[in-house]
Amino acid sequence: MSENRKILIIEDSPTYQRALADELVSRSYDIICANSGEEGLELIKENPPDLIVLDVMLPQIQGYPVCRLIKSNPHFRHIPVIILTLLEGNRIMPEAIEAGADSFINKQAPMSLIVRRIDALLKMSIAAKLFWQEEVIVEEEEISLAGKKILLMDDDLTYLQILKRELVIDGYQVMDVTTGEQCFEKVKEEMPDLILLSLEMSDLEGTDVCREIHKAKRFYSVPVLMLTPTDSREQIIRSFEAGANDCVAKTDNLKLIKLRIISILKRKYFEEEMRKVRTQLSGAEMKMIIANSEKEIQKQFAQQLEEKNKLLEKEIAERQVAEELSRKLSRAVEQSPVTVVVTDTEGRIEYVNPKFIQLTGYAYEEALGQNPRVFKSGEHSALFYKELWETITAGKEWRGEFHNKKKNGELYWEFASISPVRNLNGEITHYIAVKEDITERKRAEEELKRSKTELETQAWGLQKANDSIKMLYKQLEERNKELQKLDILKSEFVSTVSHELRTPMAIIREGVSQVLEGILGDINVEQKEFLTISLENIDRLGRIINDLLDISKLEAGRVELRREWFDLVSIVNDAIKNYKLMDKASAKGVELRTKFSGERIEVYADRDKLIQIIMNLINNALKFTEEGFIEVAVEDCEDRVECKVSDTGRGISEDDLQHIFVKFRQFDRKDGPGKQGTGLGLTICKALVELHGGTMTVDSKAGVGTTFRFILPEYSMEEILREAISSGMKEAEKLEEAFSAMLMSIDSVETKKHLMDEATYNEHLQQIGKIAYHVLRRSSDKAIGIGGCKLLMTLPVTNGRQALIVQARIEEKINEYLEKEALLEHFKVRFSIASYPSDGSSSEALWNRLFPGGGLAE
């Protein structure tokens, strides 16, 4: 056909070039082919095409520089350019748009999708071609997009507001609507320069809205950018079939979405400028151009309509079957336990699966374009590889073993099956290798051979070895029994300390206290003094037992912190109140003081352990202070909480100060009373503070007094949640197990929230959180509340599939509660799950999956 649209393909792979050319020729396009960037530029000068398909990876000059040269020339910049790449969209988009490309697509996409993209771009470039045929050149000028009207339709209010704010910052006039009806009205009122439609809506879908808008001739020229939930092929095809000029996934970075908007608006600007120039032509010229334009457009649409009517029904059915099969095959290859390598007919690698990357150490980008000879170990002969190549080029399957080399130089064994891949015409287009790592098997075989040789040569010693093994086994059994006895003795000792000593001591103390208080009769002064000393020594013995048990647990790493939020001020006040009630300080003439930087100072710590630290420090101060005061001060600093226990006691010498936290070391500070205890109290305090991630220090001056200071880090809720995810992942990695984190969000339906008061609403939120918490049966499962409407659950030894089962159980219990309370229409519960290692190998990857914005706020 003399008036067919002309397409230039610049591609150095003969196989792919031929396949694409055949597909386009079957659609009545005229095709020109170039094998390099230089050849392509020469062909453009000699015979400008209507559209250019440009590969990124080219010899000498690569695709991006070629695209820049085309777009920098005013004679050729109107020609649409599609970039072909093997990379994913997010990685190619910025470079492609910066180079001036009108679109880009993955080379592995179906040919039907590539042809649809070409059709869409050629429709947009009709005006540009007519303008070029008249040899009218628009002088280059700075294009300003500020003030352009953009209509944005989405019923996801959060996403709508985020995108609107970003576009307003860039200087656009942004109008937003949440329904299809509102969109139709706004288009009629404002005539926007660009419309952004969300593909999936609760009422009319974006595709329906797009079709309705383009039914009216006055709005046909308004470009539409479709916002798809993901970048799936099915959603892209639906968008183009509805008449969208382009589409982009909501999951893409906002910067990439804005680049797409700029690209569309610049093309629209260029087309409008050409229309302005066209209106300046004479009447005869205009009639001729309009006639040619109408004739060409009618002809093209007639051809396309005829082709589409023939293929549409068949394509829809075949596409659904093919895409489902493609998804299954893709998942099978991606998740396969064997390596899969696909090469072109020249042996250049075009695809490798994740198992290949894991085994060889080569990144995906490093492997692409390489010849498998880079894996040679040098242990196979040239004849070996020659026979392999002759077999597969003859169309046969080759099977055999390779001794190959990884990127780090390590050798490994593979059993491979290499087969040719043919197209519908029976021509070989690719080779596929499926290879199993048999390194361990080969090692085992070698080990078996060596073992067999050793067994054969040492058969005479078998009986002797057997006797020795029996004797060793007997000794091992006896030793094991001894160890079991020791373990039982140790457990019995701990049990005796915790029960046999504590229980009688409690009874003795109670009896002595009753005698001392005169409950059992009057006692004289001498008896009272004796009983007082006895009571003090009983308490001292109890403290010694507790200290010994605490230090043994700390050194064995068996102390677990049960962190929670609580008010440290109230803890200190309660401790001081207890000492005042016991009259320990006033009896010595010592004043107990407190000093706080605020009425409440919240800390995230183990309440019982912190009480133990404070009580121990106050006891220590009372022991060595004869007069003056003891002050407990708590200060809430910017990133920490600082607690000080100061006294006006005898102080500590400089020599003793450096050993103050060494266990079993006792310091009198000065000759006199106070030398008693285990020497473990301060050691335990410091260890407990450090277990919290804090520090403990001491300042003292002999004869003046002592100040013990400990600092606790102040955690934000985000730090607490990140630490929970990180520690769960580390434990899973150590145990070679899975780990999952689940975020549950409870949203109220806006139209229903006003029907209940705030207290009732919060009560229901708490009840829903409790239901989720109680579903977690294992002690290792944890739940952390985030405000009133979110709950983070960590699930050790749980993969993604198992986490979904837990989610289903939680949803079932919550729905039972909501149905019972008639609240199903009031609350909406959402879940997000991130699993290690399937969703990422770093805690940051899991965090970003749970909180896509990076922080706690959505």
TrEMBL record:
Residues bearing 4-aspartylphosphate? 55
Q: Name residues in a coiled coil.
A: 294-325, 434-486
Q: Which SUPFAM superfamilies match?
A: ATPase domain of HSP90 chaperone/DNA topoisomerase II/histidine kinase, CheY-like, Homodimeric domain of signal transducing histidine kinase, Nucleotide cyclase, PYP-like sensor domain (PAS domain)
Its top-level enzyme class, in one word, is transferase
PAC domain mapped to chain residues: 398-450
**What positions does the domain Response regulatory occupy?**
6-122, 149-265
Q: What is this protein called?
A: histidine kinase
Question: What species is given as this protein's source?
Answer: Candidatus Danuiimicrobium aquiferis
